[in-house]
What we know:
Elements: E1 4-7, E2 21-26, E3 47-48, E4 51-52, E5 61-67, E6 71-79, E7 99-105, E8 112-118, E9 124-132, E10 135-136, E11 151-159, E12 162-173, E13 190-199, E14 206-209, E15 224-228
Amino acid sequence: MGISTVFISLAMLWSATASDTIPVHRTADFTPDGIGSASSWALAEWHAMPRVGEKVSDFYSRFRILYSETGLYILFHGTDAKVTSLYRRDFDDLYRADVFEAFFHTRPADPVYFEYEISPRNRELVLIIPNLGGKFLGWTPWKYDARRRTIHKVSIVKEKGRMTGWMAEVFIPFALLEPLRDNPPKPGIVWNANFCRLDYDSGRMEKWAWSPVRSGFHEFDRYRSIHFE
């Protein structure tokens, strides 16, 4: 599958928050299209993903999140100048190239969490991760079909024919997060989470993360909270 190309002006409104806890509002289900055109996104604010470590570029990164009876919706957006990714298959090592990532730690007392990655080539990596004393290895889903499969769309943002960013819109069914506890979430439930980005345009890894990690995205004890409304 190739990259979906959509011409979107970078004049779009930029509003970003950096709260320690963010509300996740409930919506009716809708179909992601990669540009966040669903009216439900009006319920969700943009949240900034600050840079982690050395500044290499002037790019910024942000996300939105909603939930429904059946799953989570995430909309990512970041400025960018080119696609730096050779990976053409799902479940490749996408983190070695440009990628957006989301982490959900549904029960903070359990050292097990969910990781999702999406590349600008619309390839995904889906993992459940046991992290015991900093020793971790992801496990890919078994019987990944029907009600457990994600829906993901990507678009390249262009202005005057030049790439200025990219977006990814993802639906993650709660069935995919089984058997993590406190899933599916009910109103009032709090999960810990992180939303991140990697970019390699400069030839070096550049990182952004909503939660203030020190260096790596698997510092789950530093994830912030999301509150289901």
